[in-house]
Amino acid sequence: MIRMGKPAAASNPSTATPAMIAQSITGRPYLSWSQTQQYQMCPRAFEFKYVLKAAPAFVPSSLVFGSAMHEAFAKVHEAQMEGAPAPISSDLAQGVASVLQGEALPIRYSKLESAETLNALASRMIDAFMVSPEAQPDGRPICIEDRTAGIIDPAIPPIEGKVDFVRVTKDGLILRDYKTTKSKWNADKVEEAAPQLRLYAALLDRELESWRKVVQIEFVTITKAKTPIVQLHQVRSKAESVQGCIDQIGQVWRGIQSGVFPTRPGWPCKTCPYAAQCPASIAPTTSDGSDEG
């Protein structure tokens, strides 16, 4: 089934910029990489979230946990930026627990998972991170959990991305992204995730107008394991990868602008917070926090 949404509202469509059209459709004058990924996975879910502003039935535990862990990493680098002592691991872990406890929506936990197991996992992961070299990398922090934005193509809205951590060295800027993962990443997994970070580097270069150039981009992964592993993955720059991102965003934008939001039933339905509202879902869900199945 293809659902056609309303066309963009604009008093004079011929003079409306892509940012204005995006504002009229989603309430935001920009697009993000996460929006692009959401649309590609299921345009109907995109419509529920960004166009219809539907109320989600729950929030996946992985989303809440990942956000809370990013806050913990940010506090470590904030202390480094301020020249203050490093935070205590137990305090950071308690912060993660507070985020889980304070979540307004019901949290959908996966099998064998609970608030207690995630609290224990957070403690182990933070301990592993704090004793790793990645907790105190060389360079001076200049950007922590901030946003970068810019126009990458005049035919599409500005692109906005959230940057985890940027530091400046004698050679230039180093852009880092944190990932909490189920298992260690290999080279293929790094390359699969790399386009997003390359795009953010391009945005950051444009935003700073050559004040400093991004000379290195990297991921730091921390595994969700009994004994967490912290790994640094450096990413090679590829101009064609950035262009590929721009092409993807352009294709997504044309679909959004046209109001085309087809349903794509499949495994994502099991963890979709809008599945109960979607007649095409293959696994309607409830907000009672039951297993994903």
What is the total tally of β strands? Answer: 10
**Principal-axes shape call:** globular
Number of helical elements: 8
Q: Spans of 5+ residues with little confidence (pLDDT < 50)? A: 1-9, 284-293
User: In terms of quaternary structure, what is this?
Assistant: single chain
State the share of residues found in helices, binned by percent: 40-55%
Radius of gyration: 20 Å
Sheet-strand content, in percent, reads 15-25%
| Largest beta-sheet characterization | 6 strands, mixed
In round numbers, the mean pLDDT is 90
Euclidean distance between termini CA atoms: 25 Å
**Order of H and E elements:** EHEHHEHHEHEEEHEEHE
- Helix/strand-derived class? alpha/beta
Describe it.
The chain is of the alpha/beta class. It has eight helices and ten strands. Strands 2, 5, 6, 7, 8 and 9 form a six-stranded mixed sheet that branches. It has a two-stranded antiparallel sheet with strand order 1-10. Strands 3-4 form a two-stranded parallel ribbon. Helix 4 (61-82) packs parallel to helix 6 (115-130). The longest helix has 22 residues, at 61-82. It is globular, with a radius of gyration of 20 Å.
